[in-house]
Amino acid sequence: MTLGYLGIDIGSISTKGVIIDEDRTIIARSYLWTEGNPTEASRNVVRELESQVADAGVRIVGAGTTGSARRLVGAMLGASVIKNEITAHAVGTTYLHPDVRTILEIGGQDSKIICVSGGIAVDYAMNTLCAAGTGSFLSSQAHRLGVEVEEFGDIALTSKRPANIAARCTVFAESDLVHKIQVGYAREDIIAGLCNAVASNYLNNVGKGKKIDAPVVFQGGVSKNAGVVHAFEEQLGMPVTVDPDGHLMGAFGAALLAADAGPITDAESGPFASGAFDFEALLDFDFKTREVECGKCANHCEIICVYRDKDIIDSWGNRCDKGAVKTTA
Amino acid sequence: MADILHLPEEARSRVAVEERRREPKLGHRKFKRDRHKRIKVAFFRYCYYDPAFKFFVEQVLDADFLTLPEATKRTTEIGEQNSTDYVCTPFKHILGDYVEALEAGADVLVQFGGPCRLGYYGELQEAILRDMGYEFQMLNFSRGIEQGALGWAKQCLKTVNPDINIPAALPKLAATANMAVKLDEARDFYLANAGFERERGAFRRVWASYRDALRAATADRDINEAFREAMDAMRAIPLDKPADPIRIGVVGEMFTAIDERSNLELDEKLMAMGVEVHRMMNLTNRFIRYNEPNLRRSAADYLTYDMGPTSTLTVVAAHRYAQEGFDGVIHAKSAGCTPEIDCMPVLQRISADAAMPILYLTYDSQTSDTGLDTRLEAFYDMLSMKKEKTK
């Protein structure tokens, strides 16, 4: 019987999960849409992962979560590691590609660049006030053009003369795009132009002032788009590697960090109460999030409480100790 | 009146360059002063300096100081509602403070003015508040600036209290400056050490009682005594400080880099992770002991000209942190702060030359706490992993 570690990356658009064994190889992978329901999506991901390792006899002894719903799902799973997505991506990628110097990442709502030197992250940047050129923008434009976003890359590669699309801002990009559709540009040229716009927008905003050295690894959902990969290669003038597991790198990083933390032995309740992950325990309970307005002072903080059935298992959002909520489990 | 187009060329140019200063038309009513009523003066909330503002009002201006309660979400909402969208975030916070001060019965509002757009904010805010229907006087230090200290003194006499005893007020003015210096000095010690306290909250308690003591001070002697006591108390707090802790320098614009409400408690967040925080930007270094040409020379490789309000201090501080081998620097600015945007290419050069990462944070009134936590946590993880590896 081998020991396994679970890593889940709950993003705004998709939820990713992996199970790694003691040798830190990925033995199960899952990728599903979040569809606005992170708890249900993570349950489905865990169920899919379980079914993939059911015959191998793996005992899952630890879990890590990352992504924007990491706190909620971390509380739900009783995870030992709850890490931000930047660290998780850096850890995951540098493990698989020890010689990487630059990690480009474009997800559903965010984009980041991580500079690596000697196997450790030395600098990073992440989009702040603007989410221009991320995955959700591409998928809404795909919808407008009547193609599936998954086909985007292949269509883009057939273009001989990519359209020039304003890249600075999605609002301008969109009106420029509509204009070019209406004057009759070929669809593949528009799509290729859009891919170029995503790449140049990324390099001008997130990548501004950062030195991009080879080898470059590109990941996140958008890395599955061959058109954007091609645009990056053209604009950077260097090869860009896309790992087949690139979209799972955050989950992989979270699993690695959970493996570093070791098996969970002191859980009093939750799925890890018996020492090994019990999927049934996850199904038995109902997880709910409720917002409470604190009335202890004039600021009225919104406190977020996560309930497992009737027990409060986690809470956050209070600015001072007056608003601290006791967990009841 | 003669039609301006038909004037001879010479006369027309004379019209164009005529230099006559006009008072801005803000619909001032004649200020009727009830000689038996004490004037209530309110400042906006700014960082941890309210004891110094209180001292200034009570001891120098000889008026009553209106203490505002902690800012709440409502403060920001009022400010946002009544400001233009693209004005920088401090403007919105300050406007919210003014409305709350007027609701609490303030007679006079104080605006510093300042070396960037802030210099125009006083007048704009006054106009907005009058449009909202409030009646008050504004002590705006952007007015009278052309005459320097004399102009400011005239403004104080005119708007707050015509009976200020000037010979008695001058040493109190020096004491106000001393209080700001003493606040900053204690704050520097707090930032460098509070992240390592053994008992959580010990530093915060001393800091709060120090500010309480300063609020009660009436003379220089009280200030120095409160400072000595606070420093002794802080030095006595047991620490678990590693020999080589992670050190982060905070640089940026005057409001967002320092003010806890504007930067969503950046200091506390960093210290909670166990970071030694340094920040050169404060009233002492920017105003009281500011010598721009000298500062600029200390970073002559990067600066040739004075680029504006806080740019020199931002670049010089980042340069100094790089020289001292800090692990990282955080650059905090409000959205649309042009002087600080100008600094960013210079900071990028410093960062590349010294191989010291810089995290750039842009705040507006919608900035989320969660997003900030993610970025700070990642920055900390990166610095600590780097530190471990290079040991």
Automatic annotation (TrEMBL), chain A:
The keyword Metal-binding applies. Residues 6-258 form the ATPase BadF/BadG/BcrA/BcrD type domain. It comes from the Bacteria. Keywords: Iron, Iron-sulfur, Metal-binding. The keyword Iron applies. InterPro entries: ATPase_BadF, ATPase_NBD, CoA_E_activase_dom, Dehydratase_Activator_Redct. Its cofactor is [4Fe-4S] cluster. This is Acyl-CoA dehydratase activase. It comes from Adlercreutzia faecimuris.
TrEMBL record, chain B:
It comes from the Bacteria. This is DUF2229 domain-containing protein. It comes from Adlercreutzia faecimuris.
